[in-house]
Design brief:
The protein has about 190 residues and is α/β, with parallel strands linked by helices. The chain has a single domain, classed as NagB/RpiA/CoA transferase-like (Rossmann fold), CATH 3.40.50. The protein is built from five helices and twelve strands. The longest helix is centred in the first third of the chain and has 13 residues.
Length: about 190
């Protein structure tokens, strides 16, 4: 008998004959947020990301202005009008332009699922700069609503601000596990 099997056998003997207990779970599944775009923009800004809230018609020009002459990864499925910059490969890219699967207002989190226009996990974590376009209709109030929209079989990347960590002395270091700079365009 393995150690695991022995431990499980002990647990079974210990609870043998104990009455069944119903565990009630009343998880919150919806949230009320008056202005999803405003709250999401505030929370993303709290994470030290750069945020632009603009009308949808201005998105292509804003992307072109932000990208400039950077060499950018342009994932398959990205709207053509957003594909500004000089296309680049993974190892010579300055950044990546993506859309997203969903965004969460309460947490300021962007979720990528490698769908059209979102790129692969490597394409969004290797470059030092990530420009993500979030459409207002993709913003949900809370995590439960986001999870309900996502396919758990897809590779999910949850982004809450630029990549950062702190060392033992609490010195913040950015860009360790992903892009050092996150810029978000919220198109309303």
């Amino acid at each position: 008998m393995s150690a695991r099997e022995e431990i499980l056998a002990r647990i079974r003997r210990a609870v043998d004959g104990a009455p069944e207990v119903e565990i009630r779970r009343a998880y919150r599944t919806t949230s009320e947020v008056a202005d999803l775009v405003r709250l999401f923009a505030e929370r993303v800004d709290d994470y030290r990301a750069i945020v632009h809230v603009i009308p949808a018609a201005e998105v292509p020009a804003r992307i072109a202005g932000l990208v400039g002459d950077r060499r950018m990864i342009i994932p398959d499925g990205l709207p053509r009008e957003w594909a500004a910059g000089v296309p680049a490969g993974l190892h010579d890219a300055d950044g990546v332009v993506t859309g997203c699967a969903v965004a969460i207002a309460e947490t300021g989190t962007i979720v990528l699922d490698s769908g059209p226009g979102q790129g692969s996990r490597a394409q969004t974590l290797v470059p030092d700069y990530h420009l993500c376009v979030v459409r207002a209709g993709q913003i949900v109030p809370g995590v439960p609503e986001a999870v309900a929209r996502l396919d758990p079989a897809r590779p999910l990347t949850w982004i809450s601000g630029p990549s950062a960590t702190s060392d033992i002395e609490l010195n913040r270091v950015e860009g360790v596990h992903g892009p050092r700079t996150l810029e978000v365009i919220i198109s309303s």
